[in-house]
Design a protein that fits this description.
The protein is built from eleven helices and nine strands. The protein is α/β, with parallel strands linked by helices. Helix 9 runs parallel beside helix 10. The longest helix is centred in the C-terminal third of the chain and has 24 residues. Bound molecules: manganese (II) ion.
Length: 356
């Protein structure tokens, strides 16, 4: 009933077009776009031909320990020492993703603290609207709860069970219940597999470590045929080898790949500003290289970057990382499009200066 009062068109609008009116320009801060890219209105994306649309998901009601990720979207958008001029020429790849791709920022989804189900419903509708307009949604979190609506919104467009998921994280996030609730940053991956939005046997996890989850949850994950690369396997076999294994699974009977990056996959010494830090993770260099390679190699259908918690950050270390994860992904997408178009993009391992 509340929804009907706020959204009188809702009953005649099963696709939830009224949800598109709950966007705000910076829920917890000033009206800035990702590094100065143009603004877009979520309700009028059709026909614009956009390649990438940013959405902020300022939500941390799903955190189990330290909150603060609601301030993540603003930090990821704004943390850079270069001008916010909508241009970022990439040294290694020789592309300028913000100039070559048609990129816009639709602002934040209004996600009221404590109103978890309504917040997640609005986010899913917003992600679906972006995907339906033919653009890749890039969602700036927010705690990891949001990957449930993020990947669901993409699957509603690309195809149910036709999107694989590459998930960087210290934690599996496959719990059944968190504090008595189905919703939380420890449960989204189980919800996605239960609904069928993402197949368990097309779910790739990279960077797990530490002391969670417990054996019954691991048994559930095994029964779903998930593939989880624990840090010891990554150290032993090498990250590149593990990624190659993951890539083969990700494109098998799937039409797109959703990339979800929890910054706590990186060692807390290099990413301190996060809610549930677990020592012994990837280096910043490893994560950036991996994200770049994924975007250069696979058909990305959606991306989220989650668990940046500025109140626990130091010297903006983690906010800079979140910003660069996004730029590596977009640069890889721009590189891949050039390659698919028959252009010969720059090889990243070639000497930087030509004709020297
Ligand atoms: Mn997570």
């Amino acid at each position: 009933m509340e929804n009907d009062a706020e959204n009188p068109e809702g009953a005649e609008n099963p696709e939830g077009a009224g949800d598109l009116e709950v966007m705000v320009r910076g829920m917890f801060g000033p009206d800035v776009t990702f590094l100065g890219v143009p603004r877009a209105e979520l309700g009028s994306l059709d026909g614009l031909g956009l390649d990438v649309v940013f959405l902020g998901a300022p939500f941390d009601s799903g955190t189990s320990y330290r909150p603060g990720a609601r301030f993540g979207p603003q930090a990821i958008r704004a943390t850079d020492y270069l001008p916010h001029d909508g241009s970022r020429p990439h040294l290694a790849l020789g592309v300028d993703p913000l100039a070559e791709l048609r990129v816009a920022d639709a602002g934040d989804v209004l996600m009221p603290p404590g109103e978890t189900q309504e917040s997640l419903r609005r986010l899913e509708a917003a992600v679906h609207a972006v995907a339906s307009a033919g653009a890749i949604p890039v969602i700036l979190g927010g705690d990891h709860t949001i990957t449930w609506p993020d990947a669901t919104g993409v699957a509603r467009h690309t195809g149910w069970g036709r999107v694989s998921l590459i998930h960087f994280d210290a934690h599996a996030d496959t719990a059944d219940i968190q504090f008595g609730s189905l919703y939380g940053h420890g449960t989204p991956m189980r919800r996605l597999i239960e609904s069928g939005a993402v197949r368990g046997d097309r779910f790739l996890q990279i960077g797990l470590r530490g002391y969670w989850p417990e054996p019954p949850v691991l048994a559930w994950m095994a029964a779903q045929q998930m593939r989880s690369f624990e840090m010891s396997e990554i150290v032993s076999r090498g990250l590149d080898t593990c990624l190659s294994d993951a890539f083969a699974i990700a494109v098998d009977e799937c039409d797109g790949v959703f990339l979800s990056v929890d910054v706590d996959v990186v060692d807390p010494g290099m990413a301190p500003g996060t809610g549930t830090p677990e020592p012994g993770g990837l280096t910043t260099r490893q994560l950036l290289d991996a994200v770049r390679r994924i975007a250069m190699s696979l058909p990305l259908a959606g991306i989220d970057v989650v668990e940046v918690s500025p109140p626990y950050d130091h010297a903006e270390v983690t906010a800079f990382l979140g910003n660069r994860v996004v730029l590596e992904a977009l640069s890889g997408i721009a590189w891949r499009r050039r390659q698919l178009a028959g252009d010969q993009p720059r090889r990243p391992d070639a000497p930087l200066l030509e004709g020297r």
